[in-house]
Amino acid sequence: MAAPKKGRGPSSGQGRPGRSLALILIVMVALAGGMFLSGHTTPRLGIDLAGGTSITLEAQNQPGKPDAINKTNMNTAVGIIERRVNGLGVSEAEVQTQGDRNIIVNIPKGTNSKQAQEQVGTTAQLYFRPVLTVQASGPGTPEPSDSATPSASATPKPGESAQGEDGATGEDRPQGEEATPSASATTQGRAVTGGLKKDDPTPSASDEPKASESPEASPSADPATAKLQEEFAKLDCTDPKQRTEAGKDAKPTDSIVACGSNVPGSYEKYILGPAEVSGKDVDNAKGAIDQQSGEWIVSMEFTSGGAKKFQTITSRLSQQQPPMNQFAIVLDGEVVSAPSVRTALSKNAQISGSFDQQSAEDLGNILSYGALPLTFKEVSVTTVTAALGGEQLQAGLIAGAIGLALVIIYLVVYYRGLAFIALLSLLVSGILTYTIMSLLGPAIGFALNLPAVCGAIVAIGITADSFIVYFERVRDEIREGRTLRPAIERAWPRARRTILVSDFVSFLAAAVLFIVTVGKVQGFAFTLGLTTLLDVVVVFLFTKPLMTLMGRTKFFSKGGPWSGLDPKRLGAQPPLRRSRRVNAPTEPKEA
Q1: Tens digits of per-residue pLDDT, 41-63?
Q2: With CB atoms 3.0 to 4.6 Å apart as the test, which of 81, 180, 495, 566 could cross-link to 470 if both were Cys?
Q3: Listed residue (509, 542, 505, 527) closest to 433, CA to CA
Q4: Which residues contact 40 (CB under 8 A, 6 or more apart)?
Q5: Is residue 389's pLDDT more than 80?
Q6: Strand pairing category for 266-272 and 334-337
Q7: pLDDT tens string 153-176
Q8: pTM of the complete model
Q9: Beta bridge partners of 532
Q10: Three-state DSSP class for 377?
Q11: Parallel, antiparallel, or unpaired for β 102-108 and 52-60?
């Protein structure tokens, strides 16, 4: 008879543990190589560890809109502020809601963080308003006339002109010779240029309102009230408080007084008409280099509705005399730019003149992301120094080192030789965690904060728990009288099931915590979930194969006192064997 085929026992498939060890070694080398090649050899640190600024903004009630502060508008504001800050190149900025009406903006210390802080403070709505009067502001400035009629003292910004698609450019707007430097608006000259694309609406004579039909066509059509003239006369834009409060709480339909500055230390004050285009009508804007002139410009593209509004206002303003051919770009009641118009423009336009790279990109960023659905007040600004962040990081590392040391002491005392396998597994888990965190920084913007460090410390216990489960299963098999190699393979299925269930619960808790929380707590949940997944990888691809290899060595297979697998110390019992019944020989029957 043919001998029966031997069945595949539990050790089947475990005869080549070297393959699993080689695989995880390749993964480690690949991750480490990617980390060094990318130049990101350390994880990015969050604001509480690297230092930075935390800004708290509170939504303000708006006149006539009691229900404006709602979840939808708050989430919209969060998205816009986040795009504005990130548009400046600030990495790892964190914008989130807190409660029903507060927004927290965390800006890590680094390049452009100060610039971002300045723009976060300007969080209200963006409007385009026609200029009625402009005058230099400061001590010794002459009093304005009784009307909004521009005069020599209200000389507009020099060097501003408009250009159509054909490239024809109007002459620079002359600066009044009789205007003294203190009375003239000596700011950077900027012009609105642009042209119509084939699919843009073409302005016609019927579409363009006549000058007499426009409320801003002449001062008599929309005379400045006595109160407005009084505010304009008293306004001193060199005073930071007056500069901030001027026109800030006005309605879009009101005429306002406002301040602006394009040259450091020089300020202008304006009388501006009602807003005709809002920031919501701007589809896209960005700073760029003009291919023809090589100068920095700001290109704007409007929505379909915004293009019609912009065409209407530029058609009307192009017929006016300086400074009433200007429109002011007003953010939070402050004029950020006031270019002139000499021709009707539509969907696409450019602002040019006296820009450098930073000012062009700043204005483009404001135009793109400045239109918020709510007005915010800056409640508090907290700065965390790099020294304080370093102290917190050092405290977290010390706590982690203490926890790791306690785990090592416990493993060595209780498991002895098996502690070697556990420590190597912890080392592999640490390398994988470190390299992945370093790569996730530039990949998805992950920043290691203090709660994330706590999550990594907790992960030490989770990983060690998996080793303990497996080691105890192996010991149980030895207590039942099995030798080491069969014990390793028979213990694995039971330990594997327990480890997977335990890690699944931990990962589920981390996932729920990540979803339902915001801010820094998400860092704890993310790190806990990541290390839980890595625990499964390490146990399956490193700990179990390494245990199989160690079981073949004399040190472990003999079960010495320092191996952690001594049958005597474990109280092993000899295997139970059924005794065979010996039948007495039968005597032959007598014949």
Answers
A1: 888 877 777 777 778 888 887 76
A2: 495
A3: 527
A4: 438, 439, 441, 442
A5: no
A6: unpaired
A7: 333 333 334 343 333 333 333 333
A8: 0.55
A9: none
A10: strand
A11: antiparallel
